[in-house]
Please model this.
Amino acid sequence: MTLSKEEKKAQSEERARVKKIMDEVGRYLQSEVPTLDGKTKDKQIKYFSGASLVDALLSSKWGDENDDLFVETRKEAAEFCTGLLSSELTGSATEDKKNI
Model:
């Protein structure tokens, strides 16, 4: 089954729209979710908990009814955040090399 030019264009536009939303949500979460400092072997890391990520998403404008994205339950928020992490738009930890 081949897609017509219009269907391909519609799919491309939908992917671009979803990516834009995911980018916006990812940037918001990176700025709003509190991080903790830690150490693994010889590396300093900053990390966050999944619960705080989900809480931040639910308390944001996307937790309320929104035309672009509407996350109503913790389960939906957790699934969306898992998608963000797997799409590599945000990482679960950033590394800071220790200066010795």
